Amino acid sequence: MIDFEFHQATDLDHAFSLLADYGDDARLMSGGTALVLQMKQRFSQPGHVIGLTRIPGLDGIEETEDGSIRIGGLCTQRQVENHPLVTERIPLVAGAYRHVATPRIRNMATVGGGLAHGDPNQDPPPSLIALGASVVLSSANGGQRIVPAEELFVDYFETDVRPGEIITGLVVPPAPDGAGTSYLKFLPRTADDYATVSVAAVVTPDASGNCGDVRIVLGSVGLTPIRAAAAEDALRGQPLTDEAIREAAATVQDAVDPLDDHRGSAEYKREMAEVFTRRAVRQAAGQVS
Ligand SMILES: Cc1cc2nc3c(=O)[nH]c(=O)nc-3n(C[C@H](O)[C@H](O)[C@H](O)COP(=O)(O)OP(=O)(O)OC[C@H]3O[C@@H](n4cnc5c(N)ncnc54)[C@H](O)[C@@H]3O)c2cc1C
User: Fold this and answer.
1) Which of 62, 108, 128, 181 has the most C-beta neighbours closer than 10 Å?
2) What's the pLDDT at 2?
3) pLDDT at position 258, please?
4) Looking at domain 5-51, which CATH architecture does it have?
5) Which residues of the chain have pLDDT under 50?
6) Ligand 1 nearest-atom number relative to CA 44
7) Domain 61-172 class in CATH
8) Measuring CA to CA, which residue among 123, 113, 288, 102 is closest to residue 191?
9) Are 178 and 77 in contact (CB under 8 A)?
10) Is 122 a pocket residue for ligand 1 (Cβ < 6 Å)?
């Protein structure tokens, strides 16, 4: 492990002032599950690490006036998966966090740390994007930006978190009334592995029971989570038949751009992206009411 100085921030202002003091030589640390590994492997070599976990007021989960669920940036992933507001109002999100690694990791890893990590293989982002969630980024002197989760992930392990910003919250609207949702994670190796392919789908019926709206987002098949726009366009306005779902899912092979790795060849992942899109949309469509 490299030499570094650890600073425990006692509140947000303290964290922003440490960020200003140490600039590029500082890294934020929440659960540390990703950062410590990166430091051990020397992918990251900060001279200063700023601990966030003792900052008060960032570990709550509450309902906002418009019925969305606001999750503090320092909530652990375990807290999210078990909180009644999440399991009842946004079960897709509870299920996605439940798929992350093991309870031991989820007890440490936080919502903000996970989002800032920007690994395209992570479980929560496809479901958050499919529901239209937003990320709250705070900066010194009360500055705040709200960024759609869909725009947060800009490249491989690269996010739109700017220097001097801290992820302080996540706001997730529930799926529309009558919608069906699904998150499927294909992991053929072990139950605690990252996905080979993952798919989140939210299907909302129109008044006649056809597909009114649909959002399909894939993980692990590109440099960032990928929205399957052509599949969505193919389904909107259509009856939710097996044939329509099959035709829409076939377009996903052109939308993804997987990497060859130990979880499978790019070609295999491309095929599995189609298969799991079909299954996820079918499962979500089967729940519409
Ligand atoms: C063995 C193992 C298995 C895993 N398997 C899975 C899996 O199956 N699915 C899955 O989705 N994930 C998996 N993960 C990844 C896990 O989700 C991440 O390690 C975790 O989400 C990171 O959260 P953290 O709070 O520990 O972040 P940290 O390690 O503290 O930080 C991660 C990054 O975010 C920055 N950061 C931290 N907090 C903030 C903040 N509030 N604002 C801005 N920047 C911040 C840090 O500087 C760092 O760059 C696995 C991890 C491990 C170690």
Assistant:
1) 128
2) 80
3) 96
4) 2-Layer Sandwich (3.30)
5) none
6) 49
7) alpha beta
8) 102
9) no
10) yes
- Asked if residues 225 and 217 have their Cβ atoms less than 8 Å apart, the reply is yes
Closest ligand 1 atom to 108 CA:
26
CATH 3.30.43.10 in the chain, residue ranges: 5-51
Q: Calculate helix-pair angle for 242-250, 266-285, nearest 10 degrees.
A: 150
Give residues with Cβ within 8 angstroms of 237, minimum separation 6. Answer: 206, 210, 211, 212
Tell me the CATH number for domain 180-285: 3.30.390.50
Distance 52 CA to ligand 1 centre (A): 13
How far is it, in rounded angstroms, from Cα 116 to Cα 188?
27
Q: Specify the length of the chain in residues.
A: 289
Distance between CA 214 and CA 142 in Å, rounded?
36
Every domain range in the chain assigned CATH 3.30.390.50: 180-285
Shortest-distance atom of ligand 1 to CA 194: 8
